[in-house]
Each structure stands twice: as structure tokens, then as C-alpha cells.
Amino acid sequence: METTVNQDSQQIFITTAYNGIKIVVRQSDGYVNASKMIVTMKQNERTIWSSPKYAYTVSQIMDSINEGIQLTHQLDDTTSMAVQADIIFNQELEEKDAINNQLRQQIQDKDNAINSMTTRLVPQDRQFDYIYSVEPLNEDIDG
């Protein structure tokens, strides 16, 4: 993977090349230009793109997906997609941490409940001399 930084008039671009595919990212707002990748894909998939109707339908689908993503994830025109992705990532991370903490608390409660159980049918001062085991019973499903 090869990465270069280019500065044009007041913009800084980061160009990354991998296996002959170039992706250009504008540093100010995180805009990604992957047109070189699309050109390469078109060259490799000429048989698919030979049908104008198919190409038009695919472009309409891709445009609608892009509009949906923009509407769902973009706060306003001044917020870049990178900032918005970071916000969404942090929200997801907080939700997962909350769930993780709840599960840890449940495990701790179960451990405390198990440790607080008293042994039964065991003589006094012999609670730790016995080994408890659980054996699953194999019952025929057919009866």
C-alpha cells in the first residue's frame, strides 16, 4: 500500500494506491474520490456494462442508496461524513458498553447467588470435601 500527500491551492489530498487502484481523500472534509477504482471495475466488467438499460438501472439504484445514506447520516451540509461516522461510532460504542456492563452485573449477581448458597445433606465442616457433579440424562425423543 502506497500513500502520498498532495497539496493543491489550499486543499490537502491523501492519495492511497493498492494493487493499482487509487483512492483520493480530501483531508478537510473526508470526501473520498474513488473514480479510478470505478474505471478499473468498468474495464474489467465490460460485458455487464454493455447494456445501457442495465447501467442506467444500476446507476439509479446507487444514487438512491447514496441519497438514503446522506439523509440518514448527514446532520447538515457543514458536517463531513467522517465527523458524522465518528459520532455514530461513539453512540454505538456507548450502547455496547452499557449492554456489556449490564451483562457483567448479571454475571456478578449470579456468582454472588451461587457463592451464598448453603450446601445440603453435607455434614458440618465437610462442605468442601465433596464434589458436586451434574450428569445430563439421555432421554429418547421417540419415547
Give the neighbour order of strands across the main sheet. 1-2-3-4
Question: What is the H/E string?
Answer: EEEEHHHH
> Radius of gyration, Cα only, in angstroms?
30 Å
What portion of residues belong to β-strands? 15-25%
Structural class: alpha+beta
Give the overall silhouette: elongated
List keywords for this structure.
143 residues, alpha+beta, four-stranded antiparallel β-sheet, 4 helices, elongated
Short description:
Helix content is 50%, strand content 16%. It is α+β, with helices and mostly antiparallel strands and 143 residues long.
Structure description:
This protein has a domain at 1-45. A 4-stranded antiparallel sheet has the order 1-2-3-4. It has 4 helices and 4 strands; from the N terminus they run ββββαααα. The N and C termini lie far apart (63 Å). Strand 3 and strand 4 (32-33) form a beta hairpin. 0% of the residues are buried. It is of the alpha+beta class.
Give the helices and strands, then pairings.
Elements lengths: L1 E7 L2 E8 L2 E6 L5 E2 L1 H10 L1 H4 L2 H22 L7 H36 L27
Antiparallel strand pairs: 1-2, 2-3, 3-4
Keywords: Coiled coil
